[in-house]
């Protein structure tokens, strides 16, 4: 896209997107190996997207249902994220002392005050109104915001 003067546009402000269809885990018989594969731990919880926009937090399930009220603790915790707008892909879990997760414990926790639930964030989908889908050949995020923050990004 070019600007009116014919120079390439550096950035284009776009409306904040709604729910983004997530890539879901799938069963396979053999785990792929090699330097080109990146694996994530499958937690036993609810896959969600946390949207921060227009001074509001919305939490969507993997099917796009608004469960913000059901995950009130995570919504309240999301206010600590320093971003004008963001979409964070993650899993809501109740972690055990050994680091494991148990879906039945999460379901029981949601019947009460839900004080032990946390969001395990996978990666930001959108941060500060800039998309981060472009990655290097190694699968690392390209944007300079991430440089030096985490070695694995």
Automatic annotation (TrEMBL):
Signal peptide: none annotated. It comes from the Bacteria. Keywords: Ligase. One of its GO terms (biological process) is DNA repair. Its EC number is 6.5.1.1. Residues 28-114 form the ATP-dependent DNA ligase family profile domain. InterPro entries: DNA_ligase_ATP-dep_C, DNA_ligase_ATP-dep_cent. The keyword Coiled coil does not apply. GO terms for molecular function: ATP binding; DNA ligase (ATP) activity. Residues 116-152 form the DNA ligase ATP-dependent C-terminal domain. It is an enzyme of class 6 (ligase). The keyword Glycosyltransferase does not apply. This is DNA ligase (ATP). It comes from Bradyrhizobium diazoefficiens. The lineage of its organism: Bacteria, Pseudomonadati, Pseudomonadota, Alphaproteobacteria, Hyphomicrobiales.
């Amino acid at each position: 896209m070019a600007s009116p003067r014919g120079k390439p546009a550096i950035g284009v402000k776009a409306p904040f997107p709604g729910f983004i269809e997530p890539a879901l885990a799938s069963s396979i018989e053999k785990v792929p190996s090699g330097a080109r594969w990146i694996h994530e731990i499958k937690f036993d919880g609810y896959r969600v997207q946390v949207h921060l926009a227009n001074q509001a937090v919305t939490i969507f399930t993997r099917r796009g249902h608004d469960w913000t009220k059901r995950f009130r603790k995570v919504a309240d915790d999301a206010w600590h994220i320093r971003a004008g707008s963001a979409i964070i892909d993650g899993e809501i879990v109740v972690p055990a002392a050994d680091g494991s997760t148990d879906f039945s414990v999460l379901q029981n926790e949601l019947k009460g005050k839900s004080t032990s639930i946390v969001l395990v964030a996978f990666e930001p989908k959108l941060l500060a109104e800039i998309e981060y889908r472009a990655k290097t050949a190694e699968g690392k995020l390209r944007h300079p915001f991430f440089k030096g923050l985490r070695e694995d990004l």
